[in-house]
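Weekly puzzle thread! Below is a chain. First person to post its structure in token form gets bragging rights.
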Amino acid sequence: MQTDTHADNRSYRLLDLYKRLQQGEALSKRELADQYRVSEKTVQRDIEGLREYLAGEQSYLEVVYDKEAGGYRISRESAEGLQPEEVFAVCKILLESRPFPKAVMQRLLGKLLSQVSREKRDVVEKLIAQETHHYTEPQHGRDVIPALWRLAAAIREQRITSFSYTRLDGVCHERVVKPVAILFSEFYFYLIAYYADDSADYPIVFRIDRMEKISVKKERFSVPYRERFKEGEFRKRIQFMYAGELRRITFTYSGCSLEAIRDRLPTLRVLKEEAGIYTLMAESYGKGIEMWLRTQGEEVQVLEVCRG
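Winning reply:
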């Protein structure tokens, strides 16, 4: 039971009401009136005040009356908020992509699950329980979220950025670059950048978990509008996260799942089809596309590779 001092303080009542609703309680006006030692009309005014506040904030939260529970509760399932099935889908993507250490993953999953009602939260938690328990974090074990945010600011503000970079062979180099995009692919986040001295005229790919001592400089770089880096278009051409010149590859495909090839190579064009054999062309930066095509067995035959 609340003290008389608190009960007489509307601000306290509203905060307490909001906290308890957020925790998933279903609250009846009569019980609240008894606890706060006010009338039910006063409680109703408090509830309406909370509703007005949430509406003014364009929140996805809404105070509703639940007949089954016999009290007011917070609904997190308005059009603006995440639906339980949407939270489930995002949780699955996070768990399958394995981008973060286990502690970070658990924190993010908890925040996602808090977007739905307690009842639906229990359902989603049970659906992902096995994957969460057996989650295998990436070998680097680093929380890259702070670095992602710093690099995103450098990209937005077009600032020269320096860092120490350790390659796969363990060799460390100091790099100074013009950062232009952050991409994610197969467990890792990548920074896409150009060397600040323009020593290469194609984008370079850096794995962010291998970057140390990131320093965003005051110096800015400019990108003329017509030459502005188009992240969406670039993403279509760097499916394999290899730096290098743009390659245009023509090949034949005799398999039964052209759809899978299209999903892997967004720039794919069908040049012709004859007797179930497709002649295809795709563009990609670096040698990754050639390496991938060689793993496809007899169904793929490379006809031509054009660079630049």
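Puzzle host: Confirmed. Bonus trivia for everyone else. Residues 40-56 form the longest helix (17 residues).
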